[in-house]
Amino acid sequence: xxxxxxxxxxxxxxxxxxxxxxxxxxxxxxxxxxxxxxxxxxxxxxxxxxxxxxxxxxxxxxxxxxxxxxxxxxxxxxxxxxxxxxxxxxxxxxxxxxxxxxxxxxxxxxxxxxxxxxxxxxxxxxxxxx
Length: 130
Fold this sequence. Notes:
The structure is a single chain. The chain has four helices and no strands. With 130 residues, it is mainly alpha-helical.
């Protein structure tokens, strides 16, 4: 496994853990409704994960002006991939477990996110522009 892939997986795992803990705390400690807590937790982890991916995972020098919108697009694309793969999985394997479906969608969306992040989001352009 390449160093950037290992770091990507590590960062993703830590980010997911932070998301779940933060969403839980917002609901249980601050009595925020689940849908609001989920949205707030996602926003916080979005920016934290972006920062770690940029600085540590890919050691990128691409400016925020370029990489942040690309990262947001990549996350939106990953969401659409997740929804699409889950729907196809549900149609092809109607009696499968939710865990299996979630694992498959996580692999597909994660692979797409890694590919876009490593080849487009955090990579300096071919003309040397940042």
